[in-house]
Design a protein that fits this description.
single chain, alpha/beta, D-Maltodextrin-Binding Protein, domain 2, five-stranded mixed β-sheet, 17 helices
Length: about 450
């Protein structure tokens, strides 16, 4: 079967509406600053028998005979996929000569820095850039990203899993192309020790009996919500167009929050508990809550006993709760353009870089977990135990949005107090007071 390169086009009315709201044009692209640009080991997209047909005529017109002119496009991606991206774009332009008039420069700018750089200098920023989904609201409010509309928006919603598609939306409008669905946490465990990976109580009992450790970082604002969200609590923030936090939506000071706090305290009391989430610092463990980035390290330690699962359930006062938490996704954004031709080229390239074909190639190159539904069903991805466990867990999570910096410090302080044993013998009323103070402080960050 021939591989297809989708080249969906927006109607003239749609382009006009976007251009009306767009900002300045970047006439001076930056140059490639990576000294390793001569490394072409990353496989390019397969262009054999690729006549680059347009998408189904019901969805889009054939653009193969359209002249999009010439220009320069800058793309920012993480350093470990820079050469890969260069090769993919080269193959894309060879298969789609209507876009070949553009000189494309791929620069190594990580997802953690791209959004900040774009917000600081929109005009000088990249035309296409990768970023973490929790930065989307900031990019939208600063005018550093353009809407993904029409057939492109439909394509994003249909091609990607629900979590990734939702992470690309702000206020009902799609703004980005998902490229991964792999930033979250789940449980690695030693299957010779853990008899029931679905029950936290049983896991702890098994670890204690074997003299092994159970690792989880409870003084982290990233891992700690697994208990609170699992119990049904909410903690999210609303922001205005300037990026200011306007409301905190939280109900930690509730019976649900009390159940979560009790569960964390009970976990801490176990002699098997170790506060941590990094495989490099874990010793003598039978279970660890961690992410895909540590898969190989943990596999090397556990060997034949290596196993993965979504997070277990915890029990408080006779009621079972499924551990939840945050999910994370990598997205591709397109900077607002004033030139309709360049905008179409950027959109087509961003779509290609987020397509099933490219996501699978990227997974094989650097093990990034696909967000594309079809790519997730490939035999290679399905055989990846860590990604399979994460995919199950992501169904229990919420995408991480924008949070004030002070929230992360506050969550650490709560966890540190639990670890120090300050609440070991606290009554329900005393614990509720702790939760009320935590909730009130969170709300104060949005005033």
């Amino acid at each position: 079967m021939k591989k297809r390169v989708l080249a969906l086009v927006m109607s003239t009315a749609m382009i006009a509406s976007v251009l009306t709201a767009c900002g300045g044009k970047n006439d001076t692209p930056a140059q490639d600053t990576n000294s390793n640009t001569t490394n072409n080991d990353a496989p390019a997209a397969d262009t054999s028998n690729n006549d680059a047909p347009a998408a189904d005529n019901d969805a889009a017109a054939d653009t193969s005979n359209v002249d999009y002119g010439t220009g320069e496009i800058t793309i920012w991606v993480a350093e470990n996929v820079q050469t890969f991206t260069q090769n993919q774009i080269k193959a894309f332009q060879e298969a789609n000569p209507q876009y070949a008039g553009y000189t494309v420069t791929v620069e190594p700018v990580g997802e953690g820095d791209a959004a900040t750089n774009m917000i600081t200098d929109v005009e000088g920023g990249a035309d296409i850039y990768g970023f973490a989904q929790d930065q989307l609201a900031r990019l939208v409010s600063s005018g550093a990203i353009m809407p993904v509309i029409g057939d492109y928006a439909t394509w994003v919603a249909e091609q990607n899993d629900a979590g990734a598609a939702a992470a690309a939306v702000v206020g009902g409008t799609t703004y980005a192309f998902p490229i991964t669905s792999d930033n979250g946490y789940f449980m690695y465990y030693d299957k010779s020790v853990v008899t029931d990976p679905t029950s936290l109580d049983q896991i702890i009992a098994d670890c204690e009996a074997a003299g092994k450790g159970f690792y989880m970082e409870i003084n982290s604002g990233w891992y700690q919500p697994a208990f609170f969200f699992g119990a049904g609590c909410t903690l999210t923030y609303d922001a205005d167009d300037m990026g200011n936090f306007t409301a905190c939506n939280t109900d930690y000071a509730s019976d649900k929050g009390l159940a979560a706090l009790k569960a964390i305290i009970n976990l801490k009391k176990s002699p098997a508990f170790v506060n941590g989430s990094a495989a490099s610092n874990a010793t003598n463990f039978a279970a660890i809550i961690d992410g895909t980035w540590d898969a190989e390290a943990i596999k090397s330690v556990l060997g034949d006993n290596y196993a993965c699962a979504k997070l277990p359930k915890f029990t408080v006062d006779g009621t079972d709760y499924q551990l939840g938490g945050f999910g994370g996704f990598k997205l591709l954004g397109v900077k607002p353009q004033t030139d309709a031709n360049k905008m179409q080229v950027c959109m087509a390239m961003a779509q290609f870089l987020s397509s099933e074909e490219t996501q699978l190639a990227r997974y094989k190159e650097v093990s990034w977990g696909p967000s594309n539904i079809a790519a997730q069903q490939s035999s290679d991805v399905q055989a990846d135990e860590a990604l399979s466990a994460l995919a199950e867990q992501l169904a229990e999570t919420i995408p991480q949005g924008q949070y004030p910096n002070d929230y992360w410090s506050l969550a650490t302080s709560l966890g540190d107090s639990i670890i120090a044993g300050e609440y070991d013998n606290a009554s329900d009323d005393e614990l509720m007071a702790v939760l009320q103070e935590f909730q009130s402080t969170c709300q104060s960050y949005a005033q």
